[in-house]
Amino acid sequence: MIPISPNEARMEALEAIRKGNQGNDANTQAKRLLIALKVLGSITTLEARKGLDILAPAARIFDLRYRDGHCIALTWERTFTDAGVKHRIGRYTLMPQAANDDKSEAA
To answer: In angstroms, how far is the first alpha carbon of the chain from the final one?
Structure first.
């Protein structure tokens, strides 16, 4: 038996999320991205494009942040694309919400 690498396991998880949430409208893409963030903790731009079929992940992150109120951090890292070219890409991480951000609290 050949062990599965962490990258292969991540791509399998992303594929399962994509297959379980099909559609290309912005809301469905944002839903896939949020599920991936919750399941994996973080996701790169390349993972979102390749694994979730979201061609503009930054736009969906914008929706999740400013439309839906999620706290998502961005860090930069350098990695190689499938073509072997080194690029700077974003890694998005879902941050825990602060206790006073609970929308169910009465004002």
So the answer is: 57
Distance CA 53, CA 33 (A): 10
Question: Domain count of the chain?
Answer: 1
Classify residue 86: in a domain, yes or no.
yes
Give pTM, 2 decimals.
0.83
Query: Tens digit of pLDDT per residue, the chain (107 long)?
Result: 555 567 889 999 999 999 999 999 999 999 999 999 999 999 999 999 999 999 999 999 999 999 999 999 999 999 988 899 999 999 999 999 765 455 444 44
How is residue 64 written in tokens?
A: 């999740």
Q: Which tokens in the block code for residue 17?
A: 């999320």
CATH code of residue 10: 1.10.10
22 Cβ contact partners less than 8 Å away, ≥ 6 residues apart: 28
Query: What domain range is 38 assigned to?
Result: 6-97
Q: Is 28 exposed, middle or buried, given 0-12, 13-18 or 19+ CB atoms closer than 10 A?
A: middle
